[in-house]
Automatic annotation (TrEMBL):
Alphabetized PROSITE patterns for the sequence: ABC_TM1
Membrane topology label: Multi-pass membrane protein
Cellular component annotations (GO), alphabetically ordered: plasma membrane
Keyword Magnesium: no
UniProt GO MF annotations: dipeptide transmembrane transporter activity
Residue stretches in coiled coil: none
Gene3D superfamilies given in the database record: MetI-like
Keyword Chaperone: no
Database matches in CDD domains: TM_PBP2
Membrane-spanning residues: 21-44, 114-137, 149-177, 189-208, 246-272, 292-318
Record-given protein name: ABC transporter permease
Organism: Leucobacter weissii
Amino acid sequence: MTPGASGRAQRGHPLLRMLALRVLGALALLFVISVLVFSLVHLAPGDIVRNILGPKDVSPEAVAVIREQYRLDDPVHLQYLHWLGNALSGDLGQSVRHQSAVADVIFARAGNTVLLALGAFVLAAAVSIPLGVLSALRPGSALDRSITVVAILGISAPAFATSLLLLYVFAFALGWFPLYGIGGGGADTLWHLVLPSAALALGLGAILTKITRTAVIRELEQEYIVSARARGLPARRVRGLALRNAAIPIVTGAGLVLTYLVGGAIFVETVFALPGIGTLLEDAVIFKDVPVVQAVTLLVAAVIVGVAIVVDLLYAALDPRLRR
């Protein structure tokens, strides 16, 4: 092995160790979350048998069949182990409400939520990061104060409030966008998702604007920037150095605020009547569709943990100190 290859291998070891530790930690966290969710769902009031059979009088034989089908007579820990074993093999169970495989129910809804989340994130990043940079480059100016006020309002406003406001103004009053639903597919679906994505992007963009502004201002106050200015480097090059190093906390913050999409999507999908994961989880909790609640909660947790791992790897890729 050449010296260069040996050096590259040695530099790769810390990243591989970090990735292995993050994955192991993620698996442990998902296990704890699955136990907590399973326990809380089973402790919640309501009877799954009554939800399936309805309010009408039913025979004890019908109740016994349902309880046997969902193993409701087993102790809770045995029910959990049975569910966990099936989940590890890819079987997430049968939906109580939809009477079909949980995986099929989630798959039918997941695409809409992914489109909504991607649209909101792209819109928020495209607008908020440039605004944060402009605000940081002119601290104390009228532009800076205006952007800060708008960002604070965006952070303070709950997702359902901004959704209702945008729905009333742009869909009901002006009629520019559809009132509700997901459309008939293709361009029609994308058009239906414009307003919900904007509603979800407001809060996310406000947070990202504040993170970007703080990161850039902090970087501009570093000693190497002061020294670069003292040596007479062009202002454009000095700003380039600061922005390059400020990218580390911006990328980290962008990854972390993605968790905002999880809670926000539930409210936005409810207001706009979008058939996504958020409304699926809401209906499952109300109906006490235990298999769906468990599967969706674990899926959301896995996505959040996965995003955190990707953020860690991006942080290591951008910061040479971590690679050493």
